[in-house]
Amino acid sequence: MYAYxxxxxxxxxxxxxxxxxxxxxxxxxxPGDVAMTILGTDATPESLAQLRKDFGLxxxxxxxxxxxxxxxxxxxxxxxxxxxxxxxxxxLSRFKLTFELTLISAVISWIIAIPxxxxxxxxxxxxTDFGVRIISLLGVSVPNFALATVLxxxxxxxxxxxxxxxxxxxxxxxxxNLQIMILPSIVLGTAMAGAVMRxxxxxxxxxxxxxxxxxxxxxxxxxxxxxxxxxxxNAMIPILTIIGMQIGTLLGGTVIIEQIFSLPGLGxxxxxxxxxxxxxxxxxxxxxxxxxxxxxxxxxxxxxxxLDPRITYK
Amino acid sequence: xxxxxxxxxxxxxxxxxRKKFNVINNVNLTINKKQKYGIxxxxxSGKSLTSLSIMNLLPAPLNIREGKIxxxxxxxxxxxxxxxxLKVRGNDISMIFxxxxxxxxxxxxxxxxxxxxxxxxxxxxxxxxxELAIEMLEKVGISRPKQLMAEYPxxxxxxxxxxxxxxxxxxxxxxxxxxxxxxTALDVTIQAQILDLMSDLTENxxxxxxxxxxxxxxxxxxxxRVAVMYSGEIVEETTVENLFSNPTHPxxxxxxxxxxxxxxxxxxxxxxxxxxxxxxxxTGGCRFASRCPYATAICREQAPPLFSVGTDHQSRCWLxxxxxxxxx
Lengths: 314, 328
Fold this sequence. Notes:
The structure holds two protein chains of two kinds. Chain A is mainly α.
């Protein structure tokens, strides 16, 4: 197991190298650069050239890359070309918010999805099942921004409630922080719940057809034991796969939800950086997101082996 | 003789496409205390359904239309409330299945799967359960029970898993053990060991066996009494000696022929032409008529009842139509 984890971590090197080259090249192929966005359209060619020289953008692309990547390898992600702030601390502070948002959303989605998915599978083809399937379809197909807007409107109009403005970290003021985070988490959580619910239902149905379920029933097990101790645990692998992918995606930032609820998360950082052609920020953030995604996948694989003794890694 | 289990006029229907199809028709059988009873038949003959109906574990589209399943002369298992039925399953009546490879939950160690039954049916401490489980594993011939407790099903061979299934089935000392093709999926060399083990253990525990198989060899080796099933009906019912020395139903004769020819190299392997009709194909007459070499007009029109064809011997065939009718 230990050797396997080490090997997976070594695999990170080629993956992150690929990602870094890719994003570096892409940013320089896209028309427009940071000098133009800073100086505006009526800048003289001389001042543009001067600014590019200051940023080192006049060097050949491979030299630019080597400069950047050697910095990254020593932990120096450079400074934002727009704000002059250091890139890595900025990413990390925003990741804290995105991480919390993802965590709360995921927990909300599990609380909704797994029990409902189980109920739907157990009561297959009854009204309950159809009800759950409709809810999950809605969860998957209603766009986030629509649900978010409706939620804000309903709360404001009928309950005269609006979440506090301005982000506060959890450790500074937990109550206020949760008040800010709960609405976007509900929106993201219901969307995630749709997919998890469907997977839970179909996966449990699949397991309930297996021979060993008949054995457990023949032993005299109560339905509760059959479902929760045996069927659900066996059904967890595909459910976990979906959850892992959802979390990986959310940790990369949720642009629309962050915009609507004006949360300074990772998604907002990347979006702004792209529109301003803030090369160092985009590159740093993308590299960081790729790293997080790979780590989540590794984590999911490790959980698999704890869940299922047949899965071993050498 | 005290019967452990009596099945009376059991009929099971399959509900599909808003229609009903009969899959088990009017099955009667009695298993006495310590008796080893066999049901033999091809796939699709309804032998496994009969056994699942005893456990009240029929899958959803199948329903008992009529009949009783009496356990120890008093409890009708078809009418038992679910809560009571849970106490019967695994405790009074337990079951071993065909596929030891898939019959155990892959995610739990053997220990959990054996001790689970004890937890369902008694109040033991963890330590007691562990001791009982290890003791039981020794009885089913496992040489290193302590290590095996912590192992998972995928680490064991088919024979080992079937031994564990037997341990699970017998640990609560049931009155009846239903074995549904317990050796079919095993190597020939292991088959005899498993059958011997089942016979020995049930002997010690005073447990009756209902052995369900397609293999007449298994019946000959383990059973005292036998019912031959064909297309959801019992076509012949008698002692094992009678069945082998004096088979009466053309289907039984066909089954025996197809085994006998194995020892005789001068003949080709005999096989009964055709296949078991599906419930949707059934017409009014004898269910075996389409494959029977002796079929006459009456066979195609009227379903035969069970006729008495000798002491303790019944056969569902018009060839014996002059004899007394046992039941419809």
